[in-house]
Structures are given as structure tokens and as C-alpha cells.
Amino acid sequence: MSPDGCSCANSYYDRGRRRVPEGPVGFSLVKILLLDTGREWGGGTNSLLELLKRIDRDRFDITVLFYEDVRKGDGPSFGTVVGSLGFPFLLKERRRIPGWAKAVKEVARVAVGWSPSLRARAVFAVDSRWRIRADADAIAQVLREGRFDLLYMNNQPSTNLEGILAAAACGVPSLQHARSFGSLNPAEVGIVNRHLGRMICVSEGLRRAYAAQGVDPGRMMVVNNGIDPSARPCRPGREVRAEMGIAQDAVVIGTVGSLMRRKHVDLLIQALARTAGKAGGGITGLIVGAGPERSTLEAEARRLGMGGSCVFAGFQEEPLSFLDAMDIVALTSESEGLPRVLLEAMLLSKPVVAMKVTGCEDLVVDGETGLLVPFGDKGKLDDALGRLAADAAERDRMGRKGRERVLSEYTIEKYVRGVEEVFQEMPPR
């Protein structure tokens, strides 16, 4: 354990003090500290891992710093995977707010509960004083001791404020890779606009959403998420259907993702019940993923009489095979960055139905590669699912168009090259 509370999965401090070699002609080797403060392994974690697998190591020397060594289901932890790729991995203990400060936060929530903006400011003030500043000091120490040239942060600004402040204190350029949308209060917008060097947004819609909150458009650029065009299911969808007890001739409507409130899988389950009722049967739901909402969602499926025709497959290490078992892939989230599950579905020539929200509307061409529905509009969601469930030719047509779009616009090569270009163009320390 180092003095700043970081444990080292690899020999970071010896490596951090060595002389940095020159890279290829025309480039110097850029030392990057990659910070992720997330608590779970999600789509953004997968996209980050794909970047690390392909990054040009002759130009970029990366050390990874996480708050938690997250796991992908029952598989290996992220630190283990990163270590196997040859990257140093550090763990930083998350700063814990004192009990009395937590009590102050709760009092503030109640006292100004009538004003969401005042409540957010009060809570942020406590977090800033008792967590963010302390974490920033610890991260700054890592940056100084490792003599890093760049701090690269994964996730979204409101969860990386300590990193932004740490880099500013050290005079190190900072780069935020915003993979999802997060509401920012005025104080957070001020920190971003004063101290953040650049921000990569994974879709044009996400860039617009942050600009609408007051983030300086001049420091944002778009690098779309990407997917490996050669990715294939490990086993055919018909085997998954047989394993899950799903009839081969059923129309399977499903989704893949974390079962959390923001994903609103309850809207999909309710729509499945209505669609199945109108179709007179023959429709099966397939829900792939784990999370805090699972038991509630299972209870909702039983309440709606879908207990036998809505299958919960839990977390799956290899989701492509489960997507291959679906005829229609649906995503009912209230917000996204650029959803990886839709990229994967479209790569497999699956038509998609998604809410018309940031990220989804960038990726899905309504009526061509899938159907977009205003968030929360149950009638239009029913219509979209019913339309595709009843028309196999339409499903095939949209699926083919979706695959063509992914192969043209959203390849992993474009994604990695775009991020590398931003790394290289960041202002020097």
C-alpha cells in the first residue's frame, strides 16, 4: 500500500520513476493515468477494455486507476484482465464521508426539499468538502509521483470532479471520456469549464446535452463508440432458445443490460404483456442481465401473467449468443450515451426498438434500422413492438440496414483511432 492509499497490482512506482523513452519518429511516448470511479462493470467498461486491447503502446504508456476492482458477473475482476494485458493497475480507496457529515446531507435534503436546485447545491457542498477535495489530493499525489503527462477519465464529469481538480492542481492536462449523460449543477459546470482540458462525447446527442447544461462546446468533440466487425456469437441463438426453454418458432423480444431503474425494463415487460395479448400468444420476452431491480421485474412479469413467457437469463459473460436468440432487441432506457447493446444487436442484423433519447436517436435511423419511440409513450411502444413482431420481412429489412450502418459508421478501428488522435492532440504539460 502506497502512502496515498493506492494499492499496486503491478510495480507502478518503479515504473513511474523510470526515464520515459521516445516513441516512433515524430511522436514522444505519452504517459497517461486512466481514472475510473465507477462501481459496476457496464457497457462503458467494455468499451474502455476494447480501447486498451488496441491502443498503440509505442505511443501511449497507460496506468489504470480504479476505485473498485469491479467484476463482470462471476468472471475475473477488471484489474485481473488489465494486468493480463500488461497494464499497471492501481486501486484507490474511496474517501468515506464522516457519519455526522452524512447526517448534515440528509438534513439539507429535507430542509430544502421544496427546491431541487437548492437541494443539489447543499448536497454537493457537503460532498465537495468531505470527499471530493480529499480524493483530489490523493489523485494529485499519484499524478506527481508517476510524472504523468495526461489524466484520462472514464465515465462522465459529475463522477470525476476529483480527477479534474487533481489534474488542475498538478498542471497536468485532463481529458474526460463521457460515455453517458449526467446532470450537472452550476458548481460542477463551473469546475468543468475552468479546469477540464477536453471532453470526448460518444455521440453528437450527448455533446448537445452537455452543451445545453452550460458546458463549453469548444472543449467537446465527438468520437463514436465502436464495435469489432468480426465479433460473432459463441453459439447459435437456437441453442440458447433450447437451453432457456423457448420455442424455436416464438417471436422473441428481448434486451441486454444492467437491471437498474434508469433502464426502465419494467416498461418493456408491460409492453410485452400487452403485445402478447393482442397477438394471441407466440411472443416470448428474454431479459438478460443482473442488477438491483431483478426481483421487482420478475414480480411484475408474474403480476402481468408473463411468468412463463418472460425469461430472465441473469448475467451472461457472452451476450452475443443471447442477442442472436432474439428476433427484436428493445431498449427502454431514459438516457444513454451510445448504447453498446444496440451496436451489438445491429451487427447481428437484429431490428431494434428504442426510446428516442440521447444516444439511441444518434444510432437508430427511425423506420430504416429500427423504430424510435418517445420515452414513456406506452401506446407507441406497443405499436412498434407489434409492428415488428407481425412482420418477419420488415424485421429482416431493418436488420440488414442496421448491420450496414454499424459496419460503415461504428467500427472499433474508427473508435480507437479517434481516441488516439485526441490523446496526441492534447496540450502539453
Please provide the count of β strands: 14
Share in helix: 40-55%
CATH architecture descriptor of the largest domain: 3-Layer(aba) Sandwich
* Average pLDDT taken over every residue: 88
Quote the CATH topology of the largest domain.
Rossmann fold
Indicate the low-confidence ranges by residue numbers.
1-5, 7-22
Q: Would you state the CATH class of the largest domain?
A: Alpha Beta
Computed CA radius of gyration, to the nearest angstrom: 23 Å
Strand order of the biggest β-sheet: 1-4-3-2-5-6-7-8
Characterize the overall form.
Answer: globular
**Total number of helical segments?**
17
Structurally, how many domains make up the residues? 2
Distance between the termini: 28 Å
- Strand-pairing-aware structural class: alpha/beta
CATH homolog superfamily of the largest domain: Glycogen Phosphorylase B
Largest sheet properties: 8 strands, mixed
- Give the amount of beta strand, in percent: 15-25%
Topology:
Layout: E1 6-8, H1 12-17, E2 30-36, H2 43-54, E3 60-66, H3 78-84, E4 89-92, H4 99-111, H5 116-146, E5 150-155, H6 161-170, E6 174-178, H7 186-195, E7 198-201, H8 204-212, E8 220-222, H9 237-244, E9 251-256, H10 265-279, E10 283-288, H11 294-303, E11 310-314, H12 319-324, E12 328-331, H13 340-347, E13 352-355, H14 360-363, E14 370-373, H15 378-389, H16 392-409, H17 412-425
Parallel strand pairs: 2-3, 2-5, 3-4, 5-6, 6-7, 7-8, 9-10, 9-12, 10-11, 12-13, 13-14
Antiparallel strand pairs: 1-4
